[in-house]
């Protein structure tokens, strides 16, 4: 299964933990600093008896529920559908469907296609994933209105760690590249460069003593200002054996 934030103990894809206790992602706090304003949300995760994420509730700074996601799985334990509900405005009493995501898999349980159906028509897309014989993601295509609008290619080192991602934006005819850096085998930063080699964004990752990611800082640079997005990850310990654990949680189109 591909790296979706389902249960967050940074283990290899489709692996199962051993031992008496396991960690799973309980909540994520997101702070966005832009134009001297800060927006903060917090998402809380609920799991079923098998340790699979089944619902995520997102609240604003006033502890008002602003949207929630429901997760559905196939017989192999892979995420099949994610449905997002929201209120169109503060006066609306009931939540309505904002977006539905459908995943398809191959025989190796690698996601091959992600179909996004959204109320925001510009967000409707199909994402296709391609792998090498070792199961490493090597290419990704974003398709809108039956046209490929973006294509990404991935490069790995001899240990199978991702080192580079090249992103070709077909419609605007430009290319970005992402470089990945590791410390003691753990991903610590992602730096995005434009065609001129200028840094346009950077993500830094911080971990606790057992290599669970506890903080992500994302800096987005523009000529006028710098935006900062911080994600704080909080965990709970359970004695339930968790399956479908994610890896680096990075595939941005997934």
Plain-language structure description:
The protein has 254 residues and is an all-beta fold. The chain has a single domain, classed as Porin, CATH 2.40.160. It has strands spanning 22-34, 37-47, 53-59, 65-73, 79-86, 96-105, 111-118, 125-131, 137-144, 147-156, 162-169, 174-183, 186-193, 199-207, 213-221, 226-238. Strand 1 (22-34) and strand 2 (37-47) form a beta hairpin. It is globular and about 50 Å long. Mean pLDDT is 86; it is low at 1-20 and 240-252.
In short:
This protein is mainly beta and 254 residues long. The chain has no helices and 16 strands. The protein has a single domain, classed as Beta Barrel (Porin), CATH 2.40.160.190.
Label this structure with key terms.
single chain; 254 residues; mainly beta; Porin; 16-stranded antiparallel barrel; globular; disordered N terminus; disordered C terminus
Topology:
Elements lengths: L21 E13 L2 E11 L5 E7 L5 E9 L5 E8 L9 E10 L5 E8 L6 E7 L5 E8 L2 E10 L5 E8 L4 E10 L2 E8 L5 E9 L5 E9 L4 E13 L16
Antiparallel strand pairs: 1-2, 1-16, 2-3, 3-4, 4-5, 5-6, 6-7, 7-8, 8-9, 9-10, 10-11, 11-12, 12-13, 13-14, 14-15, 15-16
């Amino acid at each position: 299964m591909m790296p979706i934030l389902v249960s967050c103990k940074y283990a290899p894809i489709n692996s199962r933990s051993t031992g008496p206790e396991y960690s799973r992602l309980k909540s994520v706090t997101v702070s966005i600093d832009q134009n001297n304003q800060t927006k903060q949300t917090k998402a809380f995760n609920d799991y079923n008896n098998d340790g699979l994420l089944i619902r995520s509730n997102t609240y604003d700074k006033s502890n008002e529920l602003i949207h929630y996601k429901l997760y559905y799985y196939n017989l192999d334990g892979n995420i099949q559908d994610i449905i997002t509900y929201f209120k169109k405005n503060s006066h609306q009493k009931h939540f309505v469907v904002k977006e539905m995501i459908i995943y398809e898999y191959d025989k190796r349980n690698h996601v091959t296609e992600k179909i996004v159906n959204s109320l925001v028509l510009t967000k409707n897309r199909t994402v296709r994933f391609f792998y090498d014989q070792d199961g490493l993601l090597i290419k990704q295509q974003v398709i809108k209105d039956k046209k490929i609008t973006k294509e990404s290619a991935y490069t790995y080192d001899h240990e199978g760690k991702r080192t580079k991602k090249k992103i070709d934006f077909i419609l605007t005819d430009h290319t970005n590249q992402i470089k990945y850096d590791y410390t003691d085998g753990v991903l610590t930063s992602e730096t995005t460069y434009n065609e001129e080699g200028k840094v346009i964004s950077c993500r830094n990752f911080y971990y606790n003593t057992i290599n669970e990611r506890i903080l992500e800082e994302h800096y987005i640079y523009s000529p006028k200002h710098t935006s900062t997005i911080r994600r704080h990850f909080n965990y709970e310990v359970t004695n339930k054996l968790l399956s479908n654990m994610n890896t680096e949680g990075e595939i941005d189109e997934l």
